[in-house]
Amino acid sequence: MPSDISPPFAAPTAEPASTLRLQFRRFRKNRLAMASVYLLTLIVLMCFFGPMFFPFTGEDADFDNIGAPVNLFSIHPFGTDDYGRDLFIRVLEGGQVSLTIGFLGALVAGGIGVLYGAAAGYVGGRLDGFMMRLVEVLYGFPYVILVILLSLLFGGGTVSLFAAIVFTLWLTPAVIVRAQAQSLAQREFIQAARAGGMTGGRIVLQHIVPNCVSVVIVYGSLLVPEVILSESFLSFLGIGVKEPQASWGNLIQVGTSAMSTDLRLLLLPGGLLATVLFCLNFIADGLRDAFDPNDR
Amino acid sequence: MSLLEARNLGVGYTIPGAGLFGAPRHLPIVHEVSLSLQPGRTLGVVGESGCGKSTLGRALLQLIPSSAGQVFWQGQDMAKIPNLRRRRSEMQIIFQDPIAALDPRMTLGKIVSRPLATFEPELSKAAARARAVEALQQVGLSADFADRYPHELSGGQAQRVGIARAIVGRPKMIICDEPVSALDVSIQAQVINLLMDLQESMGLALVFISHNLAVVRHISHEVMVMCLGRVVEKAPRSEFYARPLHPYSKALMDAVPEPDPRREKGRVGTALPGELPSVLNPPKGCVFATRCPLAAEMCHNSRPLLREVAPERHVACHFVEGA
Question: What are the residue boundaries of the ABC transmembrane type-1 domain, all occurrences included (chain A) (predicted)?
């Protein structure tokens, strides 16, 4: 029953749009970032579906063509390695491993970090202090030693690599989100939520976390290349993904040892890794520009 | 039985101690506040910035813990109500900054219907939305606002949404924490009248916190004046405005600008001399003594108690005689 002094307002005529949608609209105008999205999608599709079009896998040795050179019209377009395995397929399969670890690792590490940071920032006080000191202690842990310890624990290979990556990379998102959550916790809509009878857990999940989304998307997009890079780095050192399973890291490692005689073993996985990292960084850049509340 | 009653309520915050290892200190904000509110009535709480009005409002809902005294809701000690969370539908709050009070990631329909998910979990999503739309219409917003986002609103519209969220659970009382001070004057009147209409149709009790004496006069049945966390005067509305008794109330009243510019020009300076004492180091005597034109020796040394000087009129001042 609106009274006569408060006439019903008509809603604005423009399409209703959440800030998130507006931000993505802005992102779509960034040509470099959008080109990176398309290129990255292409690479991902190639890595996951490319090998299906070949009659052999990356582990099948072709003894008739050992160390075959690049010949785009042969059955091995980029040649084979010293064991006669098709290099192109190896790189694509390595890409599957690297990309999966990259995205999954960023997702898991980001997820843990966001929840941890949001809870610490919202609760505040002594618990927050304790949770953040724990993060600082973990920050102080030497990364490579941790990976070696974990690979002893899990018997090496992809699982321990993944665990080590997640274990070290969830810390930074936790700190970033905690700062965000702390300032959100003071906002009046959080008070309103408490007056509305919501429990702390629900407030964190339904109000704090969604409001950290822009920070998380930007930081998460930087996290993916970081994970891919550390996977490659660890595999390069030989404590990550183990032969015969391929990953970009150990392919590059094989490539460097053959660098003086046969550059393509290094260039193909290295080039693809570099391209993916470039794309991810351009996307992250574009997201940051689109989500930055300071230039609107 | 009063709807809401506070007895000697004290509220404070814990602040970090001095230095790195200093023990946390307790910073008292509100001291010994007692009040009672009847259903359907409005209590106006006035005072300058930083006097603890908003803190009191939040403590009355036990959104922040009180450090002394008790709050009774319909005769029950709120600290002992089991599952107070679920009974919060009966007591709601609206805020000073109407935009900040709305989650920017949610549609208005979601914001308004969200409390129902807690208070009436048996309600289906569609029914909750229907209730939200109904509440939006009650505050004068059309149904298509339900799909809008807070950043598309003006301040007055946002405050209406805040009110809609408060009334959707059919409360008995709303704490209004400076609900109009962030709004344009023309919008202020609309929101105040909306609150009064809702009060009448829903039988709401209001605690109306404001520093604007004119607005409080319009809406309140009873007025309570706070200074530095203490109640210095409490009186029925008309008596208070006809003749404020405490020197602080008089100073507040004098500070209201005169709408007629010719008369405003001739008005004597109303700024209070003296300094506002620090909350960290409150005065031993009367909280107003450092700025009071009447202050004498005893005002600095002994604190005047809130006493009844006339029927229903309470004042905390050594110099006010029975009227």
Answer: 95-284
Mean pLDDT throughout A258-283?
81
Q: Measured between CB atoms, which of B118, B142, B197 is closest to A196?
A: B118
DSSP single-letter state for residue B281: S
The three-class DSSP label of residue B232 is strand
Those of residues 146-205 in B touching chain A at CB distance below 8 A are 147-149, 151-152, 157, 160, 162, 165, 169, 189-190, 193-194, 197, 201
CATH fold group of domain A21-52+103-291:
MetI-like fold (1.10.3720)
Rg (CA), chain A: 24
Give the number of A-B residue pairs with CB atoms closer than 8 Å.
Answer: 116
CB-based contact B114 A17, cutoff 8 Å: no
The C-alpha of A69 sits at a distance from chain B's nearest C-alpha, in angstroms, of 56
What is the secondary structure of B27-47 as a DSSP string? Answer: EEEEEEEEEEE-TT-EEEEE-
Please tell me if residue A155 touches chain B, with a CB cutoff of 8 Å. Answer: no
The answer to whether A84 and A66 are in contact (CB under 8 A) is yes
Chain A residues with CB under 8 Å of B97 CB are 188
Cis peptide bond prior to A244, omega within 30° of 0: yes
Q: Per-residue pLDDT tens for B154-210? A: 888 999 999 999 999 889 999 999 888 888 888 898 899 999 999 999 999 999 999
- At residue A101, the pLDDT reads 84
- Measure in Å the smallest separation between the Cα of B3 and chain A Cα atoms: 17
Among A1, A19, A193, beta carbon nearest to B151: A19
Q: Which two tokens stand for residue B131?
A: 């209730």
ipTM topping 0.85: no
User: Which residue ranges make up each domain of chain B?
Assistant: 244-268+283-323
* pLDDT score recorded for residue A1: 43
Q: What is the chain A residue with the closest CA to B198?
A: A1
With DSSP H G I counted as helix, E B as strand and the rest as coil, what are the percentages for chain B, rounded to 5? Answer: 35, 25, 40
CA distance A117 to A131: 9
Closest CA to A255 of A275, A279, A272, A230: A272
Is B134 near chain A, with CB under 8 Å? no
Domain ranges of chain A: 21-52+103-291
Give the tens place of pLDDT for each residue, A119-170.
Answer: 998 888 788 888 889 998 888 888 778 777 877 787 767 777 788 888 888 8
